[in-house]
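We emphasize that the prediction below concerns an isolated chain of 105 residues; any contacts that depend on oligomerization or on bound cofactors are therefore not represented. The input was used exactly as deposited, without trimming of termini.
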Amino acid sequence: MSSAYDAANALPSNFDIGGLSNAFNNPTQVFRMLDKNNDGRVTKQDLAQLLEQFGVNGMAAKVLSSYLFKQLDANNNGTIEPSDLIHANGILQNLFKMKQSGGGY
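Result of the prediction step, given as a token string:
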């Protein structure tokens, strides 16, 4: 399981936090983007695909999506619902600040 430190370090230096934050400002819209097969569920793989669209690739996408998924899956049912996405922007902002400060630990 990824820690906040691992997730922050997985963010690329040229990461567009603004673009991803703007995407997460509308949780319902982001959920529709993530739910590619329209089954009403978002998996860790769906989240990794979104991160890749914003320039987080390979192992970094896996580490970051794993951490975000753990933080967002409020009821631990293995999927993310639209209501779970409300806190995504704050989580991303905290990771970005941690990255900028050199890990924060």
